[in-house]
Design a protein that fits this description.
The protein has about 300 residues and is of the alpha/beta class. The protein has two domains: about 5-170, 3-Layer(aba) Sandwich (Rossmann fold); about 180-310, 3-Layer(aba) Sandwich (Rossmann fold). It has 13 helices and 14 strands. The longest helix is centred in the middle third of the chain and has 14 residues, at about 200-210. It starts with a strand and ends with a helix.
Length: about 300
Amino acid sequence: MEFKHTRQGYVDGLLELAEEYPELLVLDADVAKATKTVDFEAAYPKRFFNCGVQEQNMLSVAAGLALEGYIPFASTFGVFATCRAGDQLRNSIAYPKLNVKVGATHCGITTGGDGASHQANEDIAIVRSLPNMTILVPGDYEEAKQATIAAAKFVGPVYLRFGRDKYPLIPEIHGGFTIGKAKVLKQGNDISIITTGIMVDEGLKAANSLESEGVSVRLIHMPTVKPIDKEVVLNAAKETKGIVTAEEHSIIGGLGEAVAGIVAEEAPCMVHRIGMQDVFGESGQAGELMDKFGFRAKNIIEKARKIMRN
């Protein structure tokens, strides 16, 4: 199995777009080597702007460039884009609905050794609460590239979420990207598993294991968290015994709450959520942290079995 960075998919998507969209610009907050935008800087130095360690200023500059007809991609770590520059994200980008794309890397627990201060586990909740924002959470390198291309072609503010680590390539999720549409990877009628981002890999493992036991699994990958594919969620709620959601994010305000909100209003069923349980992360290797905080296939299987028993 091949492993690649989703943040590399982001930059490779930008490089693929550059000739077709001369108005596309890339901004960074002095972390270009980490976000991988250093590759864009090398290829298009006049279209790259290092704003320094000033994330608030970077988003304000991006807003101004959007008003002048450019397509700015502002790149930094997820915690800085959402927590440090939250006011600018809200008032300068979301509120006026400007055509700014925020490329947020180092999101989730797999940021690993950088520790809790850098592990963005609440960023989706923050951005999801802002009107006009679209949130894309690709599952691997190839889908990150596709999501970046889709974001450039979409008119309006977009938050793109990427990790730090290398993640497995998942062929099942390749073959196109449509904002707002889920990818149904397996059709089943006993239990539904809905994942977003890199949790698609653990979801596949869980689904395959459950199927070997005779459980019919509906596996749904949700690369767009907002606007979420409501129809697919409702079908899962109505046609299976319950839903397990899995996200590399807090259970508060992310995919799990989005799914539970839809289900509670229109098709009540049991929903169990895999994610950070209202705690901060820790410093450690990505795999160790996924084990400690319950981001594995076995944790999804446990929740699925609990629903089946009930």
